[in-house]
Structures are given as structure tokens and as C-alpha cells.
Write a structure and sequence with these properties.
This protein is mainly α and 164 residues long. It is built from seven helices and no strands. The longest helix is centred in the C-terminal third of the chain and has 25 residues, at 131-155.
């Protein structure tokens, strides 16, 4: 698979991952679904010019997404990937809650890939330049995770208790 160069290409690749996960009843699609929701919202915010630097944010979002997409396709092709992604992908069929599967992906993508993407994209620049845009993305992620928790708690009383 070719590396994405636009957010629209990221969305198309995420759609493909989700479709494959649905076809194979594969839990690996839970994180991809959440990630697609967040990415689509970021694209909308870029199009509305709601970031301080919309062009930089689109470029960063694509670079960040490519870390996940590269890991996913490497996993599918049995080529080496980071231990973090290997753990998340290897445990895709464990009988965990939907939220636990999503958190494995979020944990790896944020704790590993985000640092790599920031380092690559902000090389030679002040990291404080992107703080406000990062905070906006955090707000987007938070609202989508809260929405997902609310929806899941309707069918799982245990999730409601955990969320409390």
C-alpha cells in the first residue's frame, strides 16, 4: 500500500482496514474505526480553517497516520514492526472489551507514534508552536471517546460502572 499524502487518502486506507475487519469479524478494526472518526473530524476542522496553522496540521496528521498505517500493513505482510504495535495486533483476538481493544491502539499510537511524528515534523522548530492545535485535537479525541463510551454503556452496564 502506498503511503498516504493527504487526509483523504488516510481516510480511504482506514476505510479499507475497517471493511477488511468487518469482513473477517476482526477486532483489529475497533481502533481503526475510532481513528477514522478522529481523522475525519480533523479534516473537517482543517477545511473550516479552525487550526492556527491548517496546512501544517494536515501535513502533521498525515505523517502521524502513516505510522499507524505502516505498522498495520507491515503486520498484515508479516514484516517487522515495533514491539508496541506487535503486542496490540497480536492480541486482537483476545476476549477483551471493545474499549480495551481501542485503548491498546490509542496507547501505542500516542505513546510511540506521536513522539516520532512530532520529532520528524517539528525538527528545527519550536514545539510550543503547535500546542494550541494539539489541544484542539485532544478536545476532538476526548469528545469522540466520550461519545463512544456513552454508546457502549447503553449495551454494557459494566462499561457504565467503569466509566463512573
Amino acid at each position: 500500500m502506498n503511503r498516504a499524502t493527504t487526509i483523504q487518502e488516510v481516510l480511504q486506507q482506514l476505510d479499507s482496514i475497517i471493511e477488511d475487519a468487518i469482513a473477517n469479524n476482526d477486532r483489529i478494526g475497533f481502533f481503526a474505526y475510532l481513528y477514522r472518526r478522529v481523522t475525519a473530524q480533523i479534516l473537517e476542522e482543517v477545511q473550516l480553517k479552525n487550526f492556527e496553522d491548517n496546512e501544517r496540521m494536515e501535513k502533521f496528521d498525515v505523517a502521524f497516520a502513516n505510522y499507524y498505517l505502516d505498522a498495520y500493513y507491515a503486520y498484515k505482510n508479516n514484516t517487522p514492526i515495533s514491539k508496541s504495535w506487535a503486542f496490540a495486533f497480536k492480541n486482537k483476538n483476545e476476549p477483551l472489551t471493545i474499549l480495551q481493544h481501542i485503548v491498546m491502539g490509542i496507547n501505542t499510537h500516542i505513546n510511540l507514534d506521536l513522539g516520532l511524528a512530532v520529532s520528524a515534523e517539528m525538527h528545527g522548530k519550536e514545539i510550543a508552536e503547535i500546542e494550541n492545535d494539539f489541544n484542539k485535537v485532544n478536545g476532538i479525541l476526548s469528545s469522540i471517546v466520550n461519545e463512544m463510551q456513552d454508546r457502549l454503556s447503553r449495551v454494557s452496564s459494566l462499561l457504565f460502572l467503569l466509566d463512573s
